[in-house]
């Protein structure tokens, strides 16, 4: 019997051509870094106020949207068409499952990080007056993490829609193939 791939095994080693962490560590990281630096410079309030006023509610919404779409994706992934499709994709079925799981992990990490900001955890140790560069770097990192969470949330939505489209195309191709066979 083939052993089940673990999430962390997939994340660090992969089940296909690349390890799972490559879904996060790619060229998009530079975009998230730029977003973090821009918002870190533009937002003039402290981390606590930014976390409690805007970011924590925003990340909470991303969590809700992502969980809703993951539920839809799980229903579609159980179909025979998507299971057959997974055989042809590098990494197989685990690639689909664990990619969605990574999206949720990133969003939850952002939720916890911004929750700590809203609870004033960081401002107790960091001060923009005593160490402005460290404070700015931390602030930029949190905004970059929020940008990454937004991208991951969008990937859940997009991935679910692609699975729905693939399911529909494969089902209609199967139906057409069966119809053509009965016509001959």
Q: What tags apply to this protein structure?
A:
184 residues; mainly alpha; Four Helix Bundle (Hemerythrin (Met), subunit A); 76% helix; elongated
Descriptive report:
The protein is mostly helical and 184 residues long. It has a domain at 48-174: Four Helix Bundle (Hemerythrin (Met), subunit A) (Up-down Bundle). Helices cover 76% and strands 0% of the residues. It contains 6 helices and no strands. The protein has helices at residues 7-12, 28-42, 47-77, 80-88, 92-118, 132-183. Helix 2 crosses helix 6 and helix 4 crosses helix 5. The longest helix is centred in the C-terminal third of the chain and has 52 residues, at 132-183. The radius of gyration is 21 Å and the shape is elongated. The mean pLDDT is 83.
Question: What is the compact description of this entry?
Answer:
With 184 residues, the protein is mainly alpha-helical. The protein is 76% helix and 0% strand.
| Main sheet: strands, sense, barrel | none
CATH topology of the domain at 48-174: Four Helix Bundle (Hemerythrin (Met), subunit A)
Q: What class do helices, strands and sheet pairing give?
A: mainly alpha
CATH architecture of the domain at 48-174: Up-down Bundle
**What proportion strand?**
under 5%
What's the N-to-C terminus distance?
41 Å
What order do the helices and strands follow? HHHHHH
How many strand elements? 0
Percent range of helical residues: over 70%
Dominant shape: elongated
Taking all residues together, what is the mean pLDDT? 83
CATH hierarchy, class of the domain at 48-174: Mainly Alpha
List unreliable stretches of 5+ residues.
none
């Amino acid at each position: 019997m083939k052993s089940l791939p673990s999430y962390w095994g997939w994340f660090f080693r992969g089940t296909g051509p690349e390890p799972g962490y490559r879904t996060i560590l790619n060229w998009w990281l530079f975009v998230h870094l730029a977003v973090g630096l821009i918002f870190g410079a533009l937002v003039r309030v402290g981390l606590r106020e930014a976390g409690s006023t805007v970011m924590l509610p925003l990340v909470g919404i991303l969590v809700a949207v992502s969980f809703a779409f993951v539920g839809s994706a799980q229903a579609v992934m159980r179909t025979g068409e998507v299971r057959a499709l997974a055989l042809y994709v590098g990494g197989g079925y685990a690639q689909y499952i664990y990619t969605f799981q990574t999206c949720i992990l990133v969003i939850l990490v952002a939720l916890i990080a911004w929750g700590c900001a809203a609870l004033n955890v960081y401002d107790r140790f960091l001060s923009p007056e005593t160490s402005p560069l460290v404070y700015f770097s931390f602030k930029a990192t949190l905004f970059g993490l929020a940008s990454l969470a937004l991208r991951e949330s969008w990937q859940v939505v997009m991935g679910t829609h692609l699975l729905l489209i693939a399911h529909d195309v494969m089902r209609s191709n199967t139906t057409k193939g069966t119809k053509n066979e009965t016509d001959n």
